[in-house]
């Protein structure tokens, strides 16, 4: 089945990324896992490769290419190698859309050149302890000072990917109380400098998977945020979050599909080499049937992920379509990776094998960016149910 989603430019980029991963990531990846994060200077190497600026306008140092297809290639190549680029994924997938949509010309001149160069890494702080998917229930506040020059930020966030290395964080906070008829009203977005007094990083969270992704708790105690760092208009933050969720959910969907595809590759290679009862594991009918079923699921997930990618690039990906893609691809990946780990036998449970890390890394896909249950609710609502 021939794919039509990528062209020669994407395939040339794929070769570059694959070589970069082999040279810069694979030899040190075990060290990153042990450390619990990728080193900060690695992000400068990614910047030199040009991956942070692909969708940034040329005037700010980027390539000015309005497409997510190069990001899709990176999802496939990191999964293929059984590695990740640490917390840097949120820099582009979560940080950039808000800057493109909300930043004024003055803000873009301040933010984007450093975004492209890796001098300022960005993260998004939405989730709070106790709120989870209920974004409207957030308690963090940002109150305008008496002289109107800055906001005073107080509160806490958790599960913030990229939160340890971030230089700026887009923080969601309440600037007004919710209305009786609209509890989503009153949330605003701020580009907070992490060097600000009163800003602190709490625990670097010990996760089941995604070991090289720095995920943290953040706390704000009377942090002064200049009014020049308000993104968009006051009290409209919830609608801004909603507009960018489809692209975030596409990213999770595509990443999950890529992981499932990689799992089949790992399992196929393993069963062809491993012998039991004097025969290769691949020679048993059960192995053939299991891998064939997994491949069929991956083919279907690839079609769904590619369709969502084309819709995203065309500016037509709806909330329901993104939810559907995320639900389908993450559930497929869960099933496929589990079956591929089973084919590895006891070695599949060993972290030295990429299938084990893939199994742990994949589990969060059905949780973050909105749980599978939330995705079903979105899809059902679009059906008029």
From TrEMBL:
Keywords: FAD, Flavoprotein, Oxidoreductase. Signal peptide: none annotated. Residues 235-383 form the Acyl-CoA dehydrogenase/oxidase C-terminal domain. Residues 123-223 form the Acyl-CoA oxidase/dehydrogenase middle domain. Pfam families: Acyl-CoA_dh_1 (PF00441), Acyl-CoA_dh_M (PF02770), Acyl-CoA_dh_N (PF02771). Its cofactor is FAD. The keyword Flavoprotein applies. Residues 7-119 form the Acyl-CoA dehydrogenase/oxidase N-terminal domain. Belongs to the acyl-CoA dehydrogenase family. PANTHER family: ACYL-COA DEHYDROGENASE, ISOVALERYL-COA DEHYDROGENASE, MITOCHONDRIAL-RELATED. This is Acyl-CoA dehydrogenase family protein. The lineage of its organism: Bacteria, Bacillati, Actinomycetota, Actinomycetes, Kitasatosporales.
């Amino acid at each position: 089945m021939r794919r039509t989603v990528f062209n020669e430019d994407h395939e040339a980029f794929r070769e570059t990324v694959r070589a970069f991963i082999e040279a810069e990531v694979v030899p040190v990846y075990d060290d990153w896992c042990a450390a619990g994060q990728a080193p900060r200077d690695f992000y400068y190497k990614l910047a030199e490769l040009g991956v942070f600026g692909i969708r940034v306008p040329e005037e700010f140092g980027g390539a000015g290419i309005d497409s997510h297809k190069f990001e899709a290639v990176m999802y496939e190549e990191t999964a293929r190698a059984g590695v990740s680029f640490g917390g840097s994924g949120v820099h582009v997938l979560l940080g950039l859309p808000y800057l493109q949509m909300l930043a004024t010309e003055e803000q873009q001149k301040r933010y984007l050149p450093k975004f492209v160069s890796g001098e300022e890494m960005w993260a998004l702080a939405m989730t709070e302890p106790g709120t989870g998917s209920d974004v409207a229930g957030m308690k963090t506040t940002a109150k305008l000072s008496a002289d109107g020059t800055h906001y005073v930020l107080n509160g806490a966030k958790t599960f913030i990917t990229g939160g340890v290395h971030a230089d700026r964080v887009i923080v969601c906070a309440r600037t007004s109380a919710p209305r009786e008829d609209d509890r989503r009203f009153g949330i605003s977005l701020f580009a907070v400098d992490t060097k600000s007094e009163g800003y602190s990083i709490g625990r670097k969270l010990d996760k089941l998977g995604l070991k090289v992704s720095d995920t943290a708790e953040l706390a704000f105690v009377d942090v002064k945020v200049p009014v020049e760092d308000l993104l968009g208009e006051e009290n409209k933050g919830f609608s801004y979050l909603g507009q960018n969720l489809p692209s975030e959910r596409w990213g999770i969907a595509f990443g999950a599909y890529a992981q499932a595809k990689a799992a089949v590759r790992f399992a196929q290679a393993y069963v062809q080499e491993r012998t039991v009862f004097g025969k290769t594991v691949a020679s048993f009918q059960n192995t053939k049937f299991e891998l064939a079923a997994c491949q069929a699921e991956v083919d279907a997930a690839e079609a769904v992920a590619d369709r969502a990618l084309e819709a995203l690039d065309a500016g037509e990906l709806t909330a329901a379509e993104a939810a559907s893609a995320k639900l389908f691809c993450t559930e497929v990946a869960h099933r496929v990776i589990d079956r591929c780990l089973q084919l590895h036998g006891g070695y599949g449970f060993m972290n030295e094998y990429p299938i084990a890390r893939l199994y742990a890394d994949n589990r969060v896909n059905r949780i973050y960016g909105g749980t599978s249950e939330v995705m079903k609710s979105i899809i059902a609502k679009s059906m008029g149910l």
